[in-house]
Amino acid sequence: MKHRGPSEIRTPYLWADAKTLLDTWQAVSAKTPLQLRGIYMQSTMELFNKALEVKQASAWARDFNITPETFSMAKKAGRLSPLLAGNIAMELGEDTDHWIAVAALEAQKPSPLLARLRQHGKC
Question: CA–CA separation, 42 vs 6, rounded Å?
Fold first, then answer.
């Protein structure tokens, strides 16, 4: 059996995923916070509501070539997927990295690692 050096030891998937999220969030949190009418947008549903002020969900669905039910499901879930959040942010001229990171954090199940990220990253 071949000996593995420190650089060849694999990081457990969950820890690698959390570290990636933390690195992304640190890069995003260094930027100026986004604002909506003087209130910081904290959730993807706030981004979604801002998008609905621009055009209806059916128009967004047509533009993204997805079904309108995608937005109904997101509204029922109370969050947007990272893909949808990033694309809406891009169309609205918002920071896509920020919204992809926010959506990814919203999609995670409650855990000590998520709590740690929230304490550290103001999310």
Answer: 39
**pLDDT tens profile 76-96:** 999 999 999 999 999 999 999
Q: What is the DSSP string of 6-69?
A: GGGSPPPHHHHHHHHHHHHHHHHHTSPPPEETTEE--SHHHHHHHHHHHS-HHHHHHHHT--TH
CB burial string 8-34: b at 16+ within 10 A, e below: eeeeeeeeeebeebbebbeebeeeeeb
3 state SS of 121: helix
Domain range summary for the chain, segments of one domain joined by +:
18-25+36-121
pLDDT value of position 35: 42
pTM: 0.64
The pLDDT score that the predictor gives to residue 11 is 46
